[in-house]
Design brief:
Layout lengths: L9 H7 L7 E6 L2 E11 L10 E7 L2 E5 L3 E4 L4 E4 L5 E16 L16 H4 L14
Antiparallel strand pairs: 1-2, 2-7, 3-6, 3-7, 4-5, 4-7
The chain binds nickel (II) ion.
Length: 136
């Protein structure tokens, strides 16, 4: 018995987040988490040694700065930050994003900042799909 996963609206969940730069896990598949976040301003320069990081912009615009260039993402755009490459997400105005990351991925990779959010916090409110119906 494997209950069906719920239908989710990543954009609505992201829009409901109260804090910026506070990713939340909304789903899991294999060894990855799907997360949403509400962004404004800049996070921090960092890299993820062993994990790629997928961004999809759900609303607004997001710039990913690299050391030698930057890329600009608009609504509906998808971009994968390759493992080991230094990057810094910048949202001049508020934007909503969906992320797919391996479960081992740390929020700000190889650096620790006042914004760094532990995976335990990112999992707050997450209901695993394996949860039995009626279980509370
Ligand atoms: Ni990153």
């Amino acid at each position: 018995e494997n209950p069906l996963n719920p239908v989710l609206s990543p954009r609505n969940i992201a829009a409901s987040l109260r804090e910026y730069w506070s990713p939340r896990v909304i789903a899991e598949l294999d060894d990855s988490y799907v997360k949403v976040a509400r962004l404004k301003g800049t996070l921090a320069w960092h890299s993820h040694e062993d994990e790629d990081e997928l961004f999809v912009v759900l609303r607004g615009r997001l710039r990913i700065e690299y050391r030698d260039e930057h890329i600009d993402l608009g609504e509906g755009d998808l971009h994968v930050v390759p493992r080991g490459v230094e990057h810094n997400p910048v949202a001049q105005d508020e934007c909503l994003v969906m992320l797919i990351e391996r479960k081992s991925t740390l929020h700000t990779g190889n650096v620790e900042t006042e914004r760094t959010m532990a995976i335990s916090e990112q999992l707050k409110d997450f209901m695993p799909s394996t949860r039995e119906p009626g279980e509370d």
